[in-house]
Amino acid sequence: MAKVGLGVIIVNSDGKVLVGKRKNIIAPFYSIPGGGLDDGETFEDGAKREILEETSLILNKIEVIGLTNNLETYKKEKFHSVSVVLFCDDFSGEPKLLEPDKCEGWSWEDPENLPLPHFDASKMAIENYLEKRFYHKHH
């Protein structure tokens, strides 16, 4: 069964998106912050929780802007997840590395020139955001 993930596109006043270099199962890929949806959570509450846990940022205003259907193979293991993509440009604080076992660090990056290698679900989410698309079939 596919898992439900949350990916959050956090944009600063310079139009850059927050990206981290992952150390967990999707290492060594870069990705927007996010995580799994817990039972009983709304997408917005789950995203706020994940971002606070990972970065210390407080998301003041957040909205669902898209979906991605993720069919990937990493380290010879197949994964299927559906990512709910959320957008936030109204937040408080500066990003901090709170889960060093999962991420090497956070940086603000140009969404048109993402660092590589980039996690497919994150790349699709940002492409959809830039092209103002809600959903795009996996390529």
How would you summarize this macromolecular structure in one to three sentences?
This protein is of the alpha+beta class. 17% of the residues lie in helices and 42% in strands.
**What's the pLDDT, averaged over the residues?**
92
Number of domains: 1
> Largest sheet at a glance?
4 strands, mixed
The neighbouring-strand order within the major sheet is 4-1-6-5
Low-confidence stretches: none
Radius of gyration, whole Å: 14 Å
Q: Could you state the order of secondary-structure elements as H and E?
A: EEEEHEEEH
Features of the shown structure:
three-stranded antiparallel sheet; four-stranded mixed sheet; 7 strands; alpha+beta; globular
